[in-house]
Amino acid sequence: MQKECLECGDKIVGRIDKKFCSDGCRNAYNNRVNKDSKNLIRNTNNRLRKNYRILETLNPDQKTKTSRARLIEAGFDFNYFTSIYKTKAGTIYYFVYDQGYLPLEGDYYALVKRES
């Protein structure tokens, strides 16, 4: 019984549990199968990366204050963050990895960097 490559249909030579005739076919198959989920992940990671760069640029001293308008002007998207930290006092910080922001009164934000 000859096995056929799942991608191109060519004859497979080698191990009995092999599914593809080459690395190229294996990569093409997996890229095709995972395409839809990869787009969502890629777009989300791009937004997180952009938010991180903006926070890092606006917060060079590890702790500062900025306006909502300045964040939006830089392209910041408030819908994308990696974690939320709630203090004992009930204050809620939003983080993009180690760069965080705290909403303040008057459309201002405190920018902070979490220590490792």
From TrEMBL:
Descriptive protein name: DUF2116 family Zn-ribbon domain-containing protein
